[in-house]
C-alpha cells in the first residue's frame, strides 16, 4: 500500500504533461474533478458524511479554492511550459513552506536550532532549484512565469492543511473531498464547455485524464486513509519524500526529459532540509502513533474510526500528506499534483 501511494502521487505530473498537450487546461481540470466527484459522492452519501459538510461550508469553500480550484489550474498551466520533472521537484518544497507558515502562524512546536538549520537548508535548495529558471542564463519569460506558478501552487498546498487543521477538523475526510471536488466541477463546467475540443483527443490524452481522475484523485484518497489507519499519520506522510523521485524517474523514462545535476542536488538539499525542519514533530508523532496503536489493540471500535478521524484533505496529493503531518504537528508535508 505504501509503494502504491508513492507511485500514485508521483505520476500526476507525467499525466498532466501528456494531457495538456491535447486538451485545454479548463477541460483537464474539469475532467479530473468531475469524475473524481462522481466516484466519491456516492461513497460519502452511503457513509452519511455530507451532513457534516453543510455546517462548515464557508471554510470548505475557502479550502477548495486554495487546495484544488486555484492550484490544479495553475499547475496544469505551468506544465505547458516546463517539464514534469522540474514541476515535481518544485512541489517538493511544500514541507519547507508548511514549516515556515507554521512558524509565522505560531502553530505546532517551538522552532529549535535543528529546525532552523533545516529551514535554511531547505530554502537554499528551493533557491538552487528555482533560481536558474528565474534569473539565470537559461531563464526565459515563459519559464520564469511557469516556475513562479508552481511555487504559488506549493504555497497553496502548504496553506490548505493549516485551514483544514484549524477550521475543518470535525468534517469527515471523504465527505469533505467529495464536496470540494463537486464544487470545483461546478465552477469549471462553464470554462470547460467554452474550450471543449472540437475533435476527440488522442488515446494517450484520454488515458491520462482517466488516470488523473480515477487513480490519482478518487482511488488515492481511499488508499491513503487506509494507509493512515495501518501505520499512522506520521509514517504515512513519508511518501511525500518519494513522490518527487517518482515524478523525475517517469519524466526521464517516459518523456525523455533532461534532469541536470543541479536539479538533483537541489532536490537532495530540499529533502535534507525537510527532514531536519520536521524532526521534532516526527518524534512527537511517533509517540502519538504508538499510543494510537495501543488504543486500537484495546478497542476495536477505535480502529474502525481511524480512517475517518485521521486527516482532512481534498485535491492535492502532496497537500493531503501535508495535512496528516500538520495534524501530528508541523511536519514533513507533501508533495501531490
Structural features, described:
The chain is an all-alpha fold and 337 residues long. The chain has helices at 2-8, 12-19, 25-47, 50-54, 57-78, 84-91, 94-104, 113-134, 141-167, 173-194, 203-231, 233-236, 243-255, 261-277, 279-298, 300-309, 317-328. It has one domain (2-328). The longest helix is centred in the middle third of the chain and has 29 residues, at 203-231. It is globular. Mean pLDDT is 78; it is low at 281-289, 291-316 and 322-335.
Regions with little confidence, pLDDT below 50 for 5+ residues: 281-289, 291-316, 322-335
> Helix count?
17
As a whole number of angstroms, the C-alpha radius of gyration is 19 Å
Shape: globular
Straight-line distance between termini: 19 Å
**Proportion in helices:** over 70%
Number of distinct beta strands: 0
Subunit arrangement of the protein: single chain
Mean pLDDT: 78
Give the biggest sheet. Answer: none
The share of residues in extended strands comes to under 5%
- Based on secondary structure, the structural category is mainly alpha
- Order of H and E elements: HHHHHHHHHHHHHHHHH
Number of domains: 1
List the helices and strands and how they pair.
Elements: H1 2-8, H2 12-19, H3 25-47, H4 50-54, H5 57-78, H6 84-91, H7 94-104, H8 113-134, H9 141-167, H10 173-194, H11 203-231, H12 233-236, H13 243-255, H14 261-277, H15 279-298, H16 300-309, H17 317-328
Helix pairs in contact: 1-11, 2-6, 2-11, 3-5, 3-10, 3-11, 5-9, 5-10, 6-13, 7-9, 8-14, 9-17, 11-16, 15-16
Structure keywords:
globular, mainly alpha, 17 helices, 337 residues
Amino acid at each position: 500500500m505504501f509503494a502504491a501511494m508513492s507511485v500514485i502521487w508521483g505520476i500526476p505530473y507525467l499525466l498532466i504533461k501528456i494531457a495538456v498537450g491535447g486538451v485545454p487546461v479548463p477541460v483537464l481540470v474539469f475532467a479530473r474533478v468531475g469524475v473524481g466527484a462522481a466516484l466519491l459522492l456516492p461513497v460519502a452519501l452511503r457513509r452519511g458524511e455530507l451532513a457534516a459538510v453543510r455546517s462548515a461550508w464557508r471554510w470548505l469553500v475557502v479550502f477548495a479554492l486554495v487546495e484544488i480550484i486555484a492550484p490544479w489550474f495553475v499547475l496544469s498551466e505551468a506544465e505547458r511550459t516546463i517539464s514534469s520533472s522540474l514541476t515535481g521537484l518544485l512541489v517538493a518544497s511544500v514541507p519547507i513552506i508548511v514549516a515556515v507558515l507554521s512558524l509565522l502562524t505560531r502553530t505546532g512546536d517551538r522552532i529549535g536550532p535543528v529546525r532552523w538549520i533545516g529551514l535554511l537548508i531547505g530554502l537554499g535548495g528551493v533557491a538552487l532549484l528555482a533560481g536558474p529558471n528565474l534569473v539565470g542564463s537559461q531563464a526565459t519569460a515563459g519559464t520564469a512565469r511557469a516556475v513562479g506558478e508552481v511555487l504559488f501552487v506549493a504555497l497553496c498546498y502548504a496553506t490548505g492543511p493549516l485551514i483544514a487543521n484549524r477550521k475543518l477538523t470535525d468534517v469527515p475526510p471523504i465527505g469533505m473531498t467529495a464536496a470540494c471536488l463537486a464544487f470545483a466541477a461546478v465552477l469549471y463546467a462553464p470554462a470547460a464547455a467554452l474550450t471543449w475540443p472540437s475533435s476527440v483527443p488522442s488515446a494517450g490524452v484520454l488515458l491520462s485524464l482517466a488516470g488523473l481522475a480515477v487513480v490519482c484523485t478518487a482511488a488515492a484518497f481511499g488508499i491513503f486513509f487506509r494507509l493512515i489507519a495501518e501505520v499512522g499519520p506520521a509514517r504515512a506522510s513519508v511518501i511525500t519524500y518519494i513522490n518527487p523521485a517518482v515524478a523525475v524517474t517517469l519524466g526521464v523514462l517516459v518523456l525523455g526529459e533532461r534532469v541536470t545535476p543541479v536539479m538533483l542536488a537541489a532536490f537532495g538539499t530540499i529533502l535534507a532540509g525537510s527532514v531536519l525542519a520536521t524532526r521534532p514533530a516526527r518524534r512527537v508523532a511517533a509517540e502519538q502513533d504508538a499510543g494510537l496503536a495501543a488504543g486500537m489493540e484495546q478497542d476495536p471500535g477505535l480502529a474502525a474510526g481511524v480512517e475517518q478521524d485521521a486527516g482532512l484533505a481534498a485535491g492535492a496529493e502532496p497537500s493531503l500528506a501535508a495535512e496528516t503531518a500538520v495534524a501530528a504537528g508541523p511536519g514533513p508535508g507533501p508533495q501531490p499534483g
